[in-house]
Amino acid sequence: AHPNEALVRRGYEAFNKGDTQTLREVFDRIVWHFPGRSVLAGDHRGTDAVLGFFGRTMELTAGTFRVELHEVVADDQHTVGLHLA
Question: Phi and psi (nearest 5°) for 77?
């Protein structure tokens, strides 16, 4: 497995635990793409923007939002986590 796969898996685990310190450690040049036309839609660039997106998501769902990671695809340039929300 590519080293970035373990990093992303660690990030998903941290998200589900609400561990923002670990998220800050694993995020590097992050862009979080959220499709659609909702208030959350768009590209969230950088650690602070992504953590803000997560915070807003939790706010809108009264803290109940969780993700179930299914697969991680990783190489030296890109890493993608496929999950159900």
Answer: -110, -30
Rg (CA), the chain: 12
Q: Is the pTM of this model over 0.85?
A: no
pLDDT, mean of residues 51-56: 95
Q: How many CB atoms lie within 10 A of CB 12?
A: 17
Round to whole Å and give the CA distance between 9 and 5: 6
Specify the long-range contacts of residues 47-51, CB closer than 8 Å, at least 24 apart.
47/23, 50/23, 51/20, 51/23, 51/24
Question: Which of helix, strand or coil describes residue 83?
Answer: strand
